[in-house]
Write a structure and sequence with these properties.
Blueprint (H helix, E strand, L loop, with lengths): L2 H27 L2 H17 L9 H33 L2 H4 L2 H20 L2 H11 L5 H8 L3 H20 L2
Length: 169
Amino acid sequence: MNAATARLEIASLYESHADWLHGWLRRRTRCSHHAADLVQDTFCRLIERPHLAPPVSPRSYLATVARRLLIDDVRSREVERAVLEACAIAGAGVNGITPERIEEAIQLLAAVAKLLDALPPETRAAFLLRRLDGLEQKEIAERLGISLSTVKRHIATAYARCYAIAYAD
């Protein structure tokens, strides 16, 4: 499919289903403005991927894309709230919190969350048991039923990936 054909199909989808999608999202967000933003983001996502084949069931397809954007938005808001709470607990005060620092922290936390989601389940479990629960490597090995050397390898892998995102250019 060429770019011109894709744009026409997306325009047709927008004309036919944007109002429906707005209503669908408004019921879920309880905010007309937020729903309108998500409708726009949904169609922007389609424009960014013009190579995809036209959907057989447009409403189902649009709802799936919009639902994923809504989930991303909720996660982003949760991360932002966690950053603000952490700053308050750390006593950063109003002067220590700037929009730039909040955005940097949100981006870093989102990258870490994405990294953790991408780790194999056993690696993620070992890393979280070490970092969040503070368990010793031997305790992790016993809890997960794996060898101590495997625990060390899993934790080293997770740290290496964290380091890569923290210091990547």
